[in-house]
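Much of what follows relies on a compact textual record of a protein's fold. A complete example follows; check for yourself that the lines match position by position.
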Amino acid sequence: MPSQVKQLRKRQIVTFFLGNELFGIDIASVQEIIQYQHLTRLPQAPDFLTGIIELRGAIVPIIDLRQRFTIVETRFARKRIVIINPAVASIGFVVDDVASLIEIEQLPKMETPDFMADQAETAYVDCMVKTLDRIVIVILPDKILTPNEIKHLTQFDLQAIQT
């Protein structure tokens, strides 16, 4: 009787740098990756909102992940904006550079360390994956903003801005 081999589901992860650290987002959450462009800063915008851009007729709020994760700013020549498409609306994340697309198995993965597990500030960490030479922190883009911040963002009527 042939043995049944359980196949593990594979995930594709877009990896990117914030400073010297390597992060990743599941490719299913990524709408597109664009060159960094001028951000329009809005007066009286919530602190977490770095600015907005116009992308094919739509206003997209932009959040700088280095600032969000309190990572020291470094100068990268190739900043990018990763556009994600959560349930509510598109949001862009400023990253220092996009590294590569990696494929990981659903298991095994390194679990989030205990010292991070109970922290509301790290609810965005999905898992940590060891590659050949690095650890990639895989994040959940829909958890980067708190429910209260999402509420503020939707109340901050970005669609009222004329394009």
